[in-house]
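Q: Hi! First time doing this. I have a protein sequence and I read that you can turn it into a structure. Is that right? Here it is:
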Amino acid sequence: MRRPKPGSPRALPPANAHLIGKAHSRERLATPALILDLDALERNLKAMADYCRTHRRTLRPHGKTHKSARIAALQAKHGAAGICAATMREAQVMVAAGVRGVLITSPMVGEAKLDAAAALLERDPKVMFVIDSLVSAKAFASRLKKSRLTARVLIDVDVGMKRTGVSDVRSALKLARHLNASDRLELKGVQCYSGMVQHIDKYVDRAIIYREELVLLETLLNQFKSRRLPTQIVSGGGTGTFDIDREQGLFTECQAGSYVFMDVQYNDVEILRRRPVPFDTALFVQGMVLSNNHPGSATVDAGFKSFAMDGPLPLIRRGAPDGAKFQFYGDEFGRLSWRGKSKRMPPGKKVEFVTPHCDPTVNLHNVYHCVRGDKLVDIWPVDARGSV
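A: Yes, that's right. Below is the predicted 3D structure, encoded as structure tokens:
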């Protein structure tokens, strides 16, 4: 057996691996720990799959939420036609794990990404991409020609975010005609996503704004159909809009992603009109009290490096006095505070938090600690974490 050279890295087992299968192991985890409640996850997977099946829509959920090949496989088991990926790395991980039906929802631009796209197509010719300009379409086709490859593509449509996507009908039609005539790029339809409306709390308020945005998509689809341009796939939507998408009847498939976990943001959203939220919170971060030297407060070991900061604050789910609130207190620290200075939280006390924004929070962690009740039953890697 070879010994590692001095100073060379060596893979270590997950810190909590020795606790798998042991009673009350959820309370014994080394922290901070990303916790995945498998019972809640499975209920969420079934709820969305049943919804899409009932309303005859294809489910191609967004993998940027979980970045996990195992969760993608569970989604496929529940009937998903594939998985969406926001980055090339996410797509590479999914394809390498045997996940099929991958759609990369961000335009692939630049030599490095186009080379990676070609390599990915050599592994799975059915990977799909989005295009939002003639310049990028020509560059992609040129790169594919070198490798004698073809790719299936959707036109990315911007309905108001001003992030990516074609923003007017004339430009979209020009791009569609170009793609439809290409011998390297096969146009299959369009993609449309409005991230700005997903977290508007009230269903009616969200629907009013979103329907105004979708006028462009509806006009574009009518123009495509009248010119016999491909519209087999109309992909998009999210956890905050999938039910409005059903009402509008424009989309053929749903890209919702956060429904698998839920978070502080989505738990405040009226997802269905005048009906309960159909999904349970499945994702938590567990921290531990490190210090309690000041009355009415305690310091925990979960800070900027444990939670995404682009949304609300983490919400305490259990383990702290009633009314306790969290605030960031540094890279590795959070502060809990509450009324009543006589109450104390002893060092070592575990506290669980609902994540403020699940997608980027997951990206901060290496593994999921999978639990059923109070028992750790498995540890799964966050396979596709990273930014490339």
